[in-house]
Amino acid sequence: MKGIILAGGSATRLYPLSKAISKQIMPVYDKPMIYYPLSTLMLAGIREVLIISTPRDLPMFEELLGDGSRLGMKLSYKVQLVPNGLAQAFVLGADFLEGGPGCLILGDNLFYGQGFTKMLRSAVMALDPDHAMPDQPNPAHRHATSMAELKQQSKNIGRGACIFGYEVSDPRAYGVVEFDAEGKVLSLEEKPQQPKSNYAVPGLYFYDKTVCEKAAALRPSARGEYEITDLNRLYLDEGTLQVKLFGRGFAWLDTGNCDSLLEAGNFIATIQNRQGFYVACIEEIAWRNGWITADQLREMGRDIKTAYGRYLEHLAR
Hints:
Helix content: 25-40%
Strand content: 15-25%
Distance between the termini: 32 Å
Number of helices: 12
């Protein structure tokens, strides 16, 4: 499975901050915002990532992240001339996915919580059973236990979509998922004025190999956009949509305005300063995934003359 980060848009709710710089380059405490969605894909075991952004902003991401080789990854870049909705990412990214499954994450979404890595890798394995996970280097034994568990849970291994639900106090600004008493998904609505539930759909989506074909067949909504909710409905109509719920102890932060950007930075600062480890440290994740060596990690730390660099050196010991 490959990943796509959608990091475009004009971010008008952050003006004047975003007037001359991409929102996803702005700091969330001590790291650029895009480190957080990139780290999510890395935790999922995804090594090939496409970053989609505007003609103005894309060179900044290329300068920041390069081709990904220093992380043992492969990063590609694609221009989005006009923001026409989230589902357009799979039209722009069709050549990148090459007919395979894909994960889309929004560049301004931040996730943190116990068990998150397990949820991510479960979603990847359900839709791409042959995906090589970092902690299972031997193909003969890859995912043996996990795949057995997945087969008990789903009859659609390798098919469908997996999205997430997160309970919020006011879901009107999001896609909303409705369940029946048994937990079956009944409906999906985009930014409803009268939501049928309090479960918002965060900006993290896993799809099977039919996603690009489905996205290309969508028609613009009343808002003139190719809606991700409409794409999810196609899977719902097929009966292959899974919705996994984040629990009460899980944090999902959408950094779309100044208050939420500040809250996200304060949240990360609190976690890191209390617990002593870094959130969304992409070099650490690459090392723990086995994509780079301890020597490479140590060298990166020496090149960064801040506490971030000293943290990498400490890990490499």
